[in-house]
Amino acid sequence: RAIDWDAVQRDLAGLNIIDARGQRKQLSRDFYWYSPILSAQLDNCIAELVVKVSTEDDVRQVAATAAKWKLPLTVRGGGTGNYGQCVPLEGGIVMDVTGMSRVLDVADGRIRVQAGARMHDIDLAARETGQALRMWPSTWHVATIGGFVAGGFGGIGSFRHGILRDTGNLLNARVMTVEREPRIIELRGDDIQQVQHAFGTNGVILDVEVALSPAVDWVHCTVLFPKYRQALDFGIDAASPDLDLFLFTTVEARFAPYYTAMGDRFPTDRHAAFAMVAPESMDDFRKAAAGHGGIISVAGTEDQLLALGLPPAYECAFNHTTLQALKLDRSWTYLQISYAQPFDPAVVERHLAIFGDEVLQHQDFARAGGEAGTFGILLVRWKGEAHQYEVIREIESQGGCQVFNPHVFTIEDGGMKTIDDAQIQFKKRSDPLGLMNPGKTRGWTSDMARQV
Ligand code: FAD
Q1: Greater confidence, 250 or 447?
Q2: Probe target for ligand 1 pocket from 52, 148, 159, with the most ligand atoms within 8 Å of CB
Q3: Does 452 have pLDDT greater than 70?
Q4: Which atom of ligand 1 is nearest to the CA of 203?
Q5: Which CATH class is domain 103-215?
Q6: For residue 139, how far is its CA from the centre of ligand 1 (angstroms)?
Q7: Which residue has the CA at smallest separation from atom 34 of ligand 1?
Q8: Cβ–Cβ contacts within 10 Å for residue 99, how many?
Q9: What span, in angstroms and rounded, lies between the C-alpha atoms of 76 and 50?
Q10: What SUPFAM superfamilies does the annotation carry (predicted)?
Q11: Is the pLDDT of residue 449 over 90?
Q12: Quick check: 138 pLDDT over 60?
């Protein structure tokens, strides 16, 4: 279908339009390159136009123009997603919302912000009132709240507050539809699940209200263990109500060479746990660590660690572990796993035995749905697609492990596994022409598009 791009640009008059190829290419990418499989599939996807919006009226103009010309429209926040979430599979328009970054309101227990606000900036605004965000991804200096809601899962803070989906974390959201005359839909409480982890396929999130908790000046700790099993057992016990933790992550000793800044605070003959601990829990944390054979090699506030050239604990956790390794060795890729509960460390020991040097172990402890949750982000040596799927099959064959495949770009083939009917029903209202981030959900078929 031939598109008159000059006419499209006239409809977008007054907006900040980018049509230089280099910038369009850059703004059509995210962190999918962790996966060689996705790299091969997505490297050539590029938007015809990128529009940088800074007001709701700008969004309205872009949404109306996309609907008028039936153009694919992909919303972009910080572009830190891992599955090509904001890569425009079918070209069209990429709308960068990072210019919509205002804090709209901070009250007791809540903050309302525009969707393009960066997570770290939001936390700074909250801290001015003695409060803090309940959870954020380790990419929080770049990642936006809209991208976290539409693409994320949970992260730093999930040990204490559960995952994004858990009731009480997301409070309100306003979403703009993509139609000739865009409308605004308000979502409250659990209704926000309709757009959570929907990869921006069903409406443009304009602003979000999230819950806050009283601020804590977390102590970032590294604990070293002779055996990996000891670190994992500590992870299970760390959920004790006596300990107030924001983060608890374990990595085995073979990660040490990738944590170059840590030197002998993470030597190659020791396994490590990284934690963020409330100051008043430090005495109990020390005792519990010692009870599991652990020795604390780092304990300090983020500022103290940075002054020593050490990374904060959250940069040693979740998908930052993979990034640390990839910075030095691009022959790794990764897999994400959820373990059956109650978590049995013997499952990890089995994987250590059968995979040898092909797979390195890293586990994140968290809460999900009010229960303990244990997740793994494993480093896997890249030996081709067939080998990657052999590893997946082996992991899923025993012990109740579920792999969230990071080598696919649809919502359903990755973490969600099934089509979320509520999200598809919402898409019928919010994106009746099926223009938003096409190709990312298997739940939407072209015959669903309402002809307007
Ligand atoms: P983007 O990548 O820009 O977008 C993500 C998705 O949201 C896309 O589908 C996009 O179309 C959609 N979207 C963006 N803004 C809007 C909007 N306003 N309206 C509608 N749709 C929108 N994720 C976690 O959940 N937890 C982690 O701990 C974590 N750690 C990470 C560590 C590393 C090193 C890396 C590279 C990634 C990590 N991620 C993690 C993934 C990612 O960083 C986060 O999910 C982040 O919050 C995404 O935000 P973003 O602004 O970069 O989103």
Answers
A1: 250
A2: 148
A3: no
A4: 20
A5: alpha beta
A6: 9
A7: 320
A8: 14
A9: 10
A10: FAD-binding/transporter-associated domain-like
A11: no
A12: yes
